[in-house]
Structure formats: C-alpha cells, structure tokens
Amino acid sequence: MPNYVKKLIVKPSSKIRLKHFDPGYHGKHESHKSALPEIQENRQKMEDLQYLMYAENKHSLLIVLQGLDAAGKDGVVRHVLTGMNPSGCVAVNFKEPTAKELAHDFLWRVHPHVPAKGSVAIFNRSHYEDVLVVRVHGLVPEKVWSKRYDQINDFEQLIVTENNTTILKFFLYISKQEQLDRFKKRLDDPTRQWKISESDYKEREYWGDYIKAFEDVLTKTSTDHAPWFIIPSNHKWLRDLAISQIIVRQMEAMRMQFPKPTVNLAEIRREYHQAEDGEKAGRPKKR
Ligand code: AMP
Ligand code: MG
After folding, report:
1. Which of 133, 152, 198, 209 for a ligand 1 pocket mutation test, highest count of atoms within 8 Å of Cβ?
2. Is residue 56 part of a domain?
3. Would residue 179 count as lying in a domain?
4. What is the torsion angle, in degrees rounded to the nearest 10, for the CA atoms of residue 228, residue 128, residue 157 and residue 116?
5. Which terminus of the chain is more exposed, N or C, with fewer CB under 10 A?
6. Counting atoms of ligand 1 from 1, which one is nearest the CA of 132?
C-alpha cells in the first residue's frame, strides 16, 4: 500500500502547478470493491484512536476540507469520518459570512470552532474561502487578501503550539469534466436534486481563476505545522482511502496513551468487588 502521507503531501514552499497532478490517479486499486477493506480497516483504527484521544485529553485534531463544488467534501465527512464518535467530534460548515461576521476580521468566525483538547473538528470549507472565493470574485481588494496567507499561517501556528493541535488540510482535486458529470448525475437523482444550484454552473466560468487561487494556497500555506495534501478525487474510493490512511498515520504519530488510573485498583477491587462476591455466595458483608 503506498504511503499517502509521503505521496500526497505538499512540501513547504514547493511551487505547485496543478497541471502536474492527475485528479484521476487511482494507484493499484481498480475499483471501490478492492479498496473497501482498507478503508474499513482505517475507519476502525480511526475510531480507536479517537477514543484514545478523548481519554488522554492532551491532543486535538483539525481536519480542513477544501475543493471546488462537487469535489466530495460532504462525502468525506459522511464516508470517512463515520467511524468517529459524535461526542468529541464536530463538523463545521462555513457558508457565506453573515453581516455580523463580515464586520469582524476574517478569522473571528473560525477561532471558536477549533478543536478543544481531546477532540476532533472537521471544517467543511474554512478560513481558506477568504483567499479563494473572496479573491476570485474580488470581494475585498488584493492588498487585503494578499496579506491573508501570512495571517493564516500565524493563526495555524498559534493553534498548533498553544493547544497541541494537529492540522491536516485536504484539497480534493477533481477535473472540470468530472465536476460536470457529477452535476449531471444530480439532475437524474431525486436524492441529490436538492444540491443543484445554478450558481454552481456559473462558477465553472471561473475554473481557471479558482485553480490559480488554489495553487497559491498550496504554495504559500503548506507548512511543517499544518501541511496540505492534494487528494486525487475523481475516484471517490481513492479519495476516501488516501484521506483515511493519512488521518490514521498522523494520529498514530501522536503516540497517545491512556491516562493512568487515578485510584488504587487493588483497593477498589478489595473494597467493592470481593465484598459483593461474598454477598453473592451468601456470606454476610464484613465492614
Ligand atoms: P456550499 O458549501 O455548497 O454549502 O456553499 C457555501 C458557499 O459559501 C460557497 O459558495 C462558498 O464559496 C461560500 N463561502 C464560504 N465562505 C465564504 C467566505 N468567507 N466569503 C464568501 N463566500 C463564502
Ligand atoms: Mg455548493
């Protein structure tokens, strides 16, 4: 099995041109069926690791999902992260900012959602929209958005060093044709028609601008403390396999341990359980 951490990570300050990456890559796997056992194994490991994280209460994990419309961000939340226990794991969707949010700096609405010690947060879109859609549509002047890469790096550095957070950022990369195919499937599927919006089609006109904006994000904000991974996502199973493997490996690297019991186990056994065993056997309880 390839090591997807090594294969897909964006090394800090490498200049990214997405034309050199293949969104249709699928490695040795030819089908969902052949990848499924590995995905399921990773899900089980994630569940165990999250339980350990919750118990240890020292580390936290922030997962950031970005990608063009229909790249599969919702799918990752659904399929990959179902293994996690909802207590200790929260998914946050970042939509268009409200008037109140717009009256603050762009990180104001993000900070309250970063994970507390012992927990996992998944960002479905994130503060990166403020250098993606905001840049593509000129919602703020260039002199404002161009400063945000450094501001984001500083913000992420703060969370990592102050709160022992591991940050993993996934760019779900699909081709323009794959996006159109997925939009078309929505038209024919009554369970997905609700997702169709005309603005999604209109945004396709800006595809090249989005690619450029993503290239800058990947080039300027993949750091040692908060790396980006470029996930080939035309094949959903490869996407799920790669992301689940990367999460498992990075959680294992935290070297977490269950806390030592705070009570004397032998005493507890003697005091409460031997007496109970005696009662069951019909002997009077000694005090
Ligand atoms: P969806 O993910 O399909 O529910 O759509 C959410 C929409 O909110 C997308 O069109 C995003 O581009 C938009 N959005 C998210 N964050 C921002 C932001 N900071 N500024 C402007 N638009 C945003
Ligand atoms: Mg959308």
Report:
1. 133
2. yes
3. yes
4. -100
5. C
6. 12
